C-alpha cells in the first residue's frame, strides 16, 4: 500500500514540469523548409530552398518574377544539405563589353550636335552560367545549374565528412569556390572540379 505522503510527492513532481515544455512538446511541428538562398543576379531572379521530403531532402528553385517552380532535384537518401550559395560558372560580363551606345542630341548656338553616350551596365551573369553551390554532410559539394535542371559538377576528395559551408569567389576573370569542413579550407576550380589549394 502506498502511503499518502508518497502519493502527494509524486503528484507534486508531476506538477513541477514547466508548462512551456509541455506546450512545446505537443505543438512541435518542424518546418519542412531547411535552407534558403536568393540569387543576387537580376537576369536570374531565383529563390532556392532545401525542403524536407518523405525519404530525402529536395532542392527547389523558384523564379521570383513569375512565382513558379523552375526546377527540383531530389538528393540521395542520407544526404543532408549544410549550405546553399549562388554563383556563376564563368566570369561576369564586364562593363567594357556591355556598354550600350545611345545617341544624344543637344543644341549649342543654334546648331544640333549629336554624340554617342556610353550607358554602363552593372556586372551581370548570363542566366545559363548561374549555378548553386550545395555543401553536404558526405564530403561533397554539388554545383547545380537551374538552366539545365541538373548537377553539372561534383567537388569531392578534399573533405571526408561534413562540408559546413561553400562560397563562390570571382576575380572578374574566373570563378573559384571555397569550402570548409571546420578543419580545412579548400579552393576549387569550379569548371574542372579540381582542388586548387
Protein topology:
Elements: H1 4-15, H2 19-27, E1 33-38, E2 46-52, E3 57-63, E4 68-74, E5 81-88, E6 100-108, E7 111-119, E8 130-136, E9 141-145, E10 150-155, E11 165-170, E12 175-180, E13 185-189, E14 194-195
Antiparallel strand pairs: 1-2, 2-3, 3-4, 5-8, 6-7, 8-9, 9-10, 11-12, 12-13, 13-14
What does this molecule look like?
The relative contact order is 0.14. Strands 1-2-3-4 form a 4-stranded antiparallel β-sheet, with no helix packed on it. It has a 4-stranded antiparallel β-sheet with strand order 5-8-9-10, with no helix packed on it. Strands 11-12-13-14 form a 4-stranded antiparallel β-sheet, with no helix packed on it. It has 2 helices and 14 strands, in the order ααββββββββββββββ. The chain is mostly beta strands and 197 residues long. The protein folds into 2 domains: 128 residues, 7 Propeller (Methylamine Dehydrogenase, Chain H), CATH 2.130.10.10; 31 residues, no CATH class. Strand 2 and strand 3 form a beta hairpin.
